[in-house]
Design a protein that fits this description.
By secondary structure, the chain is α/β, with parallel strands linked by helices. It contains 20 helices and 16 strands. Helix 5 packs parallel to helix 7 (about 170-190) and helix 6 (about 150-165) packs parallel to helix 9 (about 205-220). The chain is elongated. Residues about 230-250 have low confidence and may be disordered.
Length: about 550
């Protein structure tokens, strides 16, 4: 549990007040995390809103702490502008889920006002303006705002803050009025949104926002909120069945990524993503954005981001298992797989795995792997790192997850095709140890190869290559140097099948035509009649060609 400072009464909106607010908000969300997860039914009943809000606040607090520790600013101290901008930026880059993304935009709205540090302005007036700007920007970030959500709670808080300021209130008075209004608005959400009314719960995201606003009041007043945020079940409000909601569970995937792009490009991206799915939220500005959308075609959502700018930290989550888990307890066992392309992420997601997208050269951080293990929401997790260079991070993530009571086994997969082989024999109903042994054996029995294009002249285990040559790497070592993709792939296959095999797996990169797969399948059939071939599309971020032989 994060350390909770003991706030002293103050009406100053300064860097220390922001720091105290962040610490208290993180602690409050940590306490309410499981309760908020338990009432999460909208927009997807995946029992992760409390976790997403906590992780978003944790990222914000980490960035704020770093701003205070920056030696460059140590002598002069951290200004309000620097503190509040660091706070908002940390939330932006670490935002999780629909609720976390909206929270990040709310904090950006606050930073847009407090970050200007206008001289001579009354703290109460500044805070009221900040809360109003926050609510406005959050509504604008959501493609199709829905009342009865955390947006409604934010708007009620902003209105109350403005009213308190007009009554000559201090910053603490404004924060208290916003907090009280948010709690009252939260209690009304079951009557505004049918999904909440039928479940008899308040809005989960709004519940988290109440915790954050309570922390703000505590930071400014030095007084602890009289009551915890509304966390339990609300009184059910009778609602007629909604046929549309009953018949349509919504898109199958959640896609989130950070995006470096211009504002004009993001405007076009919003329109494009809005046609692909729902729950679209795009937050940020000044060239850096956080994109969140629910879609049935995650590849198209990522491709739209590539066309708009440079997407990274791409996360694709399949909702099937999350919806089931949201209706009950933790799953007994899950698989987390690190994959190099969105096509493989979709494939593994359909097989029930939670995926982490790691394009070549962009290794995921330990925190990303821990987050994926938490998202898997299972008592037992099998982790497939997908590369020898990721083993250390996978081991560290497993150790951290074990401290949370999750049993984790890391299978030393060195390629995505070994991960596919392991996933193919995964038995969630068998014993954990037997499942791990079977998956490890399947991965170990799969030889792997990758085709890449040399960027410069260099010495390799197969001789000297020139820039533009196609390199065929077998089990991590360069074994073939060729002039073209097709002949190099055939030479690699011949070497790999020379020692036997029953199944060839081809994973095609984004620029590789289907004709190559057809030619390679014919090549295998011609020389090895008993060998089957399966082909998948790796996606935009994957290597030109991955080959697996089992």
């Amino acid at each position: 549990m994060p350390h909770e400072p003991q706030p002293q009464p103050t009406d100053e909106l300064d860097a220390e007040a922001v720091r105290t607010w962040s610490s208290l908000a993180l602690a409050a969300l940590g306490r309410a995390r499981e309760d908020i997860d338990a009432i999460n039914v909208y927009p997807v009943a995946d029992a992760d809103t409390g976790t997403n809000l906590y992780l978003t606040a944790e990222s914000a607090d980490r960035a704020l702490t770093a701003a205070f520790e920056d030696e460059t600013h140590a002598t002069a101290g951290t200004s309000l502008a620097r503190a509040v901008r660091a706070f908002a930026h940390g939330a932006l880059i670490g935002a999780r889920g629909n609720s976390g993304t909206i929270l990040a935009q709310l904090l950006r709205g606050v930073a847009d006002v407090l970050g200007d540090e206008p001289a001579g302005r009354e703290p109460g007036r500044l805070l009221a303006e900040a809360l109003t700007r926050a609510a406005q920007e959050a509504y604008e970030a959501v493609a199709h705002p829905v009342e009865g959500t955390m947006l409604t709670v934010a708007a009620a808080a902003a209105r109350a803050g403005e009213a308190a300021e007009h009554a000559a209130g201090t910053a603490a008075d404004v924060a208290r009025a916003a907090y009280d209004a948010a709690r009252a608005a939260l209690a009304e959400t079951p009557g505004q949104l049918a999904a909440l009314g039928r479940a008899g719960v308040v809005d989960a995201g709004g519940c988290g926002l109440v915790a954050v606003l309570g922390a703000l009041w505590q930071a400014l007043s030095g007084r602890e909120p009289a009551a915890e945020p509304v966390r339990g079940r609300a009184v059910p409000v009778p609602q007629p069945p909604d046929p549309c909601e009953q018949e349509q569970d919504g898109p199958a995937y959640e896609v989130i990524y950070l995006l470096e792009a211009t504002e004009a490009a993001v405007g076009e991206l919003r329109a494009r993503l809005d046609g692909l799915g729902d729950s679209l939220v795009v937050v940020g500005g000044d060239g850096l954005w956080n994109v969140h959308v629910h879609v049935d075609d995650p590849g198209a959502a990522v491709e739209a981001g590539v066309d708009a700018g440079r997407p990274y930290r791409i996360r694709i989550t399949h909702f099937g298992d999350e919806r089931r888990r949201g209706r009950g307890e933790r799953a007994q066992r899950a698989v987390v797989a690190v994959v190099p392309g969105e096509g493989l992420a979709v494939l593994c997601g359909e097989a029930g795995a939670t995926t982490v997208l790691a394009p070549p050269g962009e290794a995921p951080a330990v925190a990303e792997l821990v987050d994926a293990i938490r998202r898997a929401h299972a008592r037992e997790v099998v982790l497939l790192p997908g590369g020898a260079e990721l083993r250390a991070a996978a081991a560290a993530a497993a150790e951290e997850a074990r401290a949370d009571g999750v049993r984790v086994a890391v299978i030393p997969t060195r390629s995505a095709v070994q991960g596919l082989a392991a996933l193919a024999v995964h038995d969630p109903d068998g014993s954990f140890d037997e499942d791990v042994v079977a998956m490890t054996a399947a991965a170990g029995a799969t030889r792997y190869a990758e085709l890449a294009v040399a960027e410069r002249q260099s010495f390799t285990s197969a001789g000297i290559c020139q820039a533009g040559d196609v390199l065929g790497l077998i089990d991590g070592d360069v074994a073939v140097i060729g002039a073209g993709l097709t002949e190099t792939a055939e030479a690699v296959l011949e070497r790999m099948l020379g020692s036997g095999g029953e199944l060839v797996t081809l994973v095609l990169g984004p620029e590789v035509p289907d004709a190559l797969a057809e030619r390679l399948e014919a090549y295998v059939q011609h020389g090895h009649l008993a060998v089957d071939t399966v082909t998948y599309r790796g996606g935009r971020c994957s290597a030109p060609l991955l080959i697996g032989v089992e």
